[in-house]
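Tutorial handout. Part one gives the primary structure; part two gives the three-dimensional structure as tokens.
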Amino acid sequence: MAAVPPTAWILLACFALATLSLLGPSRATYDPTAWLIWGRGIVDWDFHTTFGPSWKPLPVIFTTPFALFGDDAAPLLWLVVARAGGLFAIALGFRLAARLGGVLAGVVAVVAMVLAEQFVYNFWRGNSEGLLVALSLWAIERHLDGRRWQAFGIAVAAGLLRPEVWPFLAVYGLWLIWKDWRGAPPWRTIAIVAGSGIAVIALWLVPEYIGSGDFLRAASRAREPVANSPAQADRPFLAVFENSHSALSIPVYAGAILAIAFAGVAWRRRRQDGPVLAIALIAAALMVIVAVFAEIGFTGNLRYVTLPAALVCVLAGVGWSRLLGALRGRFGLAVAIGAGVVALAASAAFVVRDARRFGDEMDQMRSAAKLSEALPAAIDRAGGEAAIKRCGPVSTTALQTQIVAYLLHLQEAHVGAPPRPTGTRFHPRGEGWEVKQTCG
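Part two.
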């Protein structure tokens, strides 16, 4: 019997841990709940995307079959996928950094990723950033293994999560065509690359047109003004960098700079360490793309830079490992250990700060989950789903419209923000709900 690939075991472990995590507070946040509504709408032939967040194809590919398992199971199934994706991203971050710089590099990369601002917080609540990082790191790894078509296929899946991935997907596809061009056009390769590109664009645009009547509704939604976002700054391009610097700590950035410096020297002298430089260039290009998008109205918030931040974490591990390795090679083990102790001591304050922030984020996540878990009881207090619908319009605060719509089997358009003169209003109070009704 053929041996099971190590990646399969890692994926299985990630899904097992994600499933066990459901024993704790587990409620999807705003965007994932919209994806659940859309998946249910596809199954029920009642698909509308006019309201809510921007359309994303890949999540709805999951939430549509999940809808067949019922309203209670579907959110949990999606949380398992999102959390497993995030855990897989961390595992791949370790594996890629260790491949480039040894086990120490992998450990540093994992710590940096876990403590990165809002990284775990986002994928634990069902957002897709963990999946995006996992797919991107996996594509890089498959390329380094020489499995270029696998890398391309994984990159296509990543392209169904963020449009910032599209330029890299296009360049990689053209590179595949160039590699296969031997005297005559490689029509099979051209067909696969072109067909994949068309499929990605179609999956972004066609469902949006079916659901809203506007091919570009997702882009329009993403460009709606968001207070305090980089897009609302005087110089959005620069604001993206200013806003996102807090995602990682100074030791992480320092490690990434070290990795680039060591790789630059190795490339100039021996044409080595190309992958490290390529990862650095990809991270920089992603930041520039996000910044350019902010200039044309996309928010440019912290979630948008999750992928380049994860790549910087990998570089940080490589950089610190290379530095200690160089010190050991030149001055001996004792000096390398001493330098490592000094580096740890200098980083301790940053690690403690980030660990506290991580704890605060988990507390926020638990509070939000408890609030969502209290909503069914609030619906019962208001007379149940049927009575609420008979009472008139339903309203709640802006960030709660999706969960209220999902539990009441409504479209997002049917749950508005207060004030409304009649109907049922659900107002969050701490970890519970205040319900006011004026039926008419």
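Part three, for discussion. The chain has two domains: 6-371, 375-438. The mean pLDDT is 91.
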